[in-house]
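Readers of this paper often ask what the protein records in our data store actually look like. Such a record has a labelled line for the sequence and another for the backbone structure tokens. Nothing more is needed to write down the fold, since each code stands for a local backbone conformation. The record that follows is passed on verbatim for readers who wish to inspect the format.
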Amino acid sequence: MTPAVLSTDPSSSNGHVNGLNGIHHSKKASLDGFGTRAIHAGSEANEETGAVIPPISLSTTYKQHGIGNHKGFEYSRSGNPNRNAFETTLAALESGGAYALAFASGSATTATVLQSLGPDAHIISVNDVYGGTFRYMKRVATENQGLETTFLDLENADDDTIRAAFRPNTKLIWIESPTNPTLRLIDIPRIVALARAAPSDPLVLVDNTFLSPFYSSPLLQGADVVMHSLTKYVNGHSDVVMGALVLPAHRAAFADKLRFLQNAIGSVPSAYDCWLAQRGAKTLHLRMKAHGTNALAVARALQASPHVDEVIYPGLAAHPRNDLAYRSLAPHARAFVDRFVQERGDAAGGFPYGGMISFRIRGGAREAEAFLTATRLFTLAESLGGVESLAEHPAQMTHGSIPPEERALLGIGDNLIRLSVGVEEEEDLVADVEQALEAAAAVSSTPTSSASSSV
């Protein structure tokens, strides 16, 4: 397990230096397991009171004992004890991470990264990208900074196709794996190798939101930057909007640049949100195991249903890239999966691989809506990664900003449903999905009003 670079001095951890949130290396790296880091990194007992849980620091400004003589904090936009503590946690959770930066939202995180590229840059992005990311690339960055984006099927494109997309001004490759919402898997080491061989030497960014730091460690696979919408799994309780970037030690210069932009743009999360998200992160390892175990059970139930045309869950043995899914597991996740297969494996095969499932219901928009309004435990709502189960219709909800013709090419049709499987009881979730499928099938067998009137 690759150790994270953590500050052991709470008074200097990412302290406010010369108007910026400074970055500090630790004197001692942590070799603890994932769950232990989640609970302890950045959560040292308060030296003044002995409080085991970090207190919430709501102050916007901090006393100086002389000009420039302070305790590491001057102004809360530039540095706050709760944000600094949480960033320490994040750097520890993302294996291979040395620096972490928290932002006010995942969208603010996206904006900061793309702004860091400067004017008239070119990037390559996976074509099946989150709708909000697509919107920012095409509607904001293109218009405001001349950014050009080439969207490629990075799952299936061969090396020559990807090489042909590189330009002298290609500065970044944007990866989601699995993608949102069709859960395509990208071979990250392959893309990294192509990037390193390109004359422009672009950075490789991986949006790791869907798998979280528990199931995937992109930095260990060679990525330069990992992004998270912390709103989802890391916080895990659907009560915080936040994003983050995590970088390895050898990307210190880029981390400094991003830190400058974080402070200059001011898209920082509140102290209270950082406190909540840090609390949520403490149970990430427990929740992700439950999410994955439940999702595998639900995926198998969907696979067995006559009312489903296709189930997309890379953890299923029948998934065409199931081998890649296993190879891409973080070291701690692979240990969990191996134990799971040994203790609970059966003839059906497969293994837990996060909590996200997409499936194509037999029929179209009518059947999809019938399913989505018939579930009892799966709430019809956008977002994902909370302890509660959610379901949504990408074509009309999360990916509505993508033009219809492009959605069709990506396979985001009217019969596609996305599930965020929560941590409720496995049997209850399976039963809920099965009864909702029956309800949708009943609607499918009922003539529409227009058909009835013509009889």
The first helix runs from residue 34 to 40.
